[in-house]
Every structure is written in C-alpha cells, then in structure tokens.
Amino acid sequence: MRPRSDHAGARGSRATRPRARHLRGDAGPRREHNRELTNVEWILGDGVSLAVPDGSVDACVSVVVLQHMPDPALTLGYVREVGRALRPGGWAALQVSNDHGGHRRWVGIRHQIKALAGRAPRGLGHPAWIGSAVELDDLREAANDAGTDVEVVWGEGSQYCQVLLRKRPGADATPQSA
Fold first, then answer.
1. β-strands 40-44, 20-24: how paired?
2. For a Cys staple, 42 with which of 19, 27, 134, 152, CB 3.0–4.6 Å?
3. In which region does residue 157 sit, left (phi positive, over 0), alpha (psi from -120 to 50) or beta (all else)?
4. What is the reported pLDDT for 154?
C-alpha cells in the first residue's frame, strides 16, 4: 500500500514570489477551487518520493497526516524525503504522533451502536486511520540522515506533536540512509 499524503511544499507564496508549488496527494480539488492562482504549479505527490529536485524547497508543512501513517517507518521515510527536498536553510513543520496509547483498534459503544444503525463512519479500524507513533529519537536520527536538525518540539507525548526541522547549510541533499 502506498501511503496517501496531504503534504504541501512551496517555493514561496503569491505575495513573496512570482511562482509557488503545492504538492498534494490529490491536487485536483485544490486546482479546481483555486483557478485564480495561476502562479501555482500543482503537483501530484505521495510523500514517499516528492516530485521536486534535491534542495529545491524553501518550506514544507504537513499537518494531520503523519499520525495516520500505518507504520512509523513511513513517517521516518517522509522525514528523510523532506530533508532531501529542502534547500540549505529551508524548514519543515511537521505534526507527528509519539503517543503510543492513541493508536489502538478500540471503538466505543456509541460508535458500535451507530454502526449497527448504519450511521457510523467506516474505516476507523483501518491501519491507515489508526496510524502509528514514532519515537522522537528515531525522528531525530532520520532528520540527521537527511541533513536536517530538529530545532523545536512542541507537544511531546501526544498525537499532535509538532516538530520544526531546518536543513543545515551546506548539507548534502541526498539522505545518508533510507
């Protein structure tokens, strides 16, 4: 299964640069609803291999995505791939989970009753929805492999842990290990 990602990478914005890139797992709806953004290049991506050259991205933001990855190795691979894409001095703000208790196949009684009545959301037991937690030491190692440093961590121990990465000046664009 290839993970579906909801990541965005941009080389500037409408206000600061003449062109921007938006990378998304399903760019179609964004393209349709933002036709006036003629300076945006819409690129279909999956997070496993970003369709941008090494060292070409100024910033990357991923929110409410990585905590749903079914395997921590996918999240760590994403961190390495973001590091490859970032230019020296570029940054990435990522939301990850490092709360192992939040990734259980448990569904409450209210959901079970709704499911019996045909009124509950489906797929809550699917591994891609349940997601997985990553250890911050493993994340730091993956970031280091990609020439990035973990500058700040907010919300450690939660499903909504925020991590700020920055590409080291002069760092090689290609991750050391995958």
1. parallel
2. 27
3. left
4. 96
Cα–Cα distance measured from residue 106 to residue 129, given in angstroms and rounded to the nearest whole number:
12
Q: Residues near 143 by Cβ (< 8 Å), separated by ≥ 6? A: 79, 83, 149, 150, 165
Residue 10 in 3-state DSSP?
A: strand
Residue type, 103: H
**What is the rounded distance in angstroms from the CA atom of residue 178 to the CA atom of residue 166?**
19
Token pair recorded at residue 169: 């000046």
In three-state form (DSSP H/G/I as H, E/B as E, the rest C), the secondary structure along 49-74 is CCCCCCCCEEEEEECCCHHHCCCHHH
* DSSP track, 95-122: EE---GGG------HHHHHHHHTT-SPS
Amino acid residing at 62: S
pLDDT of residue 118: 77
Q: How far is CA 170 from CA 50, 162, 167, in A?
A: 21, 25, 9
Model pLDDT for residues 123-177, shown as the tens digit of each residue: 666 666 678 899 999 999 999 999 999 999 999 999 899 999 999 998 765 555 5
Tokens of 89: 């001095």
Name the class of domain 8-167: alpha beta
Beta bridge partner(s), residue 20:
40
- HSE of 21 in the Cβ direction (CA atoms, 13 Å)? 18
